[in-house]
Amino acid sequence: MKLLIVLHHRFGLWNAPDWFVERLKSDFPQLEIVHLSNYDRIEPEIVDAEIVIAWSVRPEQFKAAKKLRWIHSPAAAVHQLMFPELINSEVVLTNAREVHGPVVAEHVIALIYALAKKIPEAVRLQQKHIWGQEAMWREGRRPRELADATLGLVGVGSIGREVAKRASALGMSVVAVRQHPEKQKPEGVTTVYSAGALKIFLAQCDYVVLAAPITPSTQRLMNAERLGQMKRDACLINVGRGLLIDEAALSTALRKNQIGGAALDVFEQEPLPADSPLWDLDNVLITPHTAGLTEELWERHYRLYSDNLRRYLGGKSLGGMVDKDKGY
């Protein structure tokens, strides 16, 4: 049985370290494990692979993989794999959403505190050697307490659930919107709205956190109309994917102070182009897709993947299964 690992990314942390591969070879000596650090040889290697770990696979490569039974993505988002040939096949798809949930949730809480306490403004004043107490209070939205503020979650998957637990522990009121509101409410969430009630949901939130998967119904979900339904002093936080936001509409809303601010970790195009107007807006906090960064990343990946590999070899159901029809 052949396991093909092909992970290539410009950012070093997203590439599997050597120890990850060597430990798999040691723990699963019955497997033929091939590790490619780039895509140069993926076509001949994928032909007889039964299992693949990859960020993405092209449709023509998928068609050539006659023995393929399982694809695992180290990412949480799998929209790049949602092509008809894979969706309509019997190949199982899993992702690493449980790896990323806790650390991304910590980042969300950090962003909320930064926005609430106007930390970016304080840093800019510090760089200018300005004692800006009066400015911090008088200009723009005022510093606020988080207790009793309302946090709205768009998406209550692995990230959303972890955010809800942490935010509710801070005394925040947590509401959510999801495709199936009839499901059991996650811990810390007081109310769950349907997608059809998004206007009502947005109107009550002081902070709106986007942590939803990319599907046809969520692409550019936060457009000009939806941004206009937010409170004027509310803040938008995106740790999902850049395509959840109409960035041109967001730039306009922020420039006109139609909403209080935004904290963005993901963008439609990454790296964010140097000429993006988002860079120059004082009411935007940008982090360069760092919400999931942690020294524990690949150790967590290993624990999750090795457990799933044992399940697969034992004929058991896998964790982190993706519903290919839904796209998440």
Primary descriptors:
328 residues, alpha/beta, Rossmann fold, seven-stranded parallel β-sheet, five-stranded parallel β-sheet, 12 helices, elongated
How would you characterize this protein structure?
The protein is of the alpha/beta class and 328 residues long. It has two domains: 2-98 and 294-313, Rossmann fold, CATH 3.40.50; 101-286, NAD(P)-binding Rossmann-like Domain (Rossmann fold). It is 33% helix and 16% strand. It has helices spanning 18-27, 42-46, 59-64, 84-87, 97-116, 119-127, 133-138, 158-169, 198-204, 224-227, 247-255, 297-313, and strands at residues 2-6, 32-36, 51-54, 70-72, 92-94, 150-154, 173-178, 189-194, 207-210, 235-238, 261-264, 284-286. The strands form two sheets. The chain has a seven-stranded parallel sheet, with helices on both faces. Helix 8 (158-169) links the parallel strand 6 and strand 7 (173-178). Helix 5 packs across helix 8 (158-169). The longest helix has 20 residues, at 97-116. It is elongated, with a radius of gyration of 21 Å. The mean pLDDT is 97.
Instruction: Classify the fold: give the CATH topology of the largest domain.
Output: Rossmann fold
Could you state the oligomeric state of the chains shown?
single chain
The poorly predicted ranges are none
Output the CATH homologous superfamily of the largest domain.
Answer: NAD(P)-binding Rossmann-like Domain
Structural classification: alpha/beta
Mean pLDDT: 97
Q: Major sheet: size, sense and barrel closure?
A: 7 strands, parallel
Integer count of domains = 2
CATH architecture of the largest domain: 3-Layer(aba) Sandwich
Based on Cα principal axes, name the global outline. Answer: elongated
The rounded Rg comes to 21 Å
Spell the H/E element sequence. EHEHEHEHEHHHEHEEHEHEHEEH
Number of strand elements: 12
User: Total helix count?
Assistant: 12
Beta-strand portion reads 15-25%
Gap between N and C termini: 27 Å
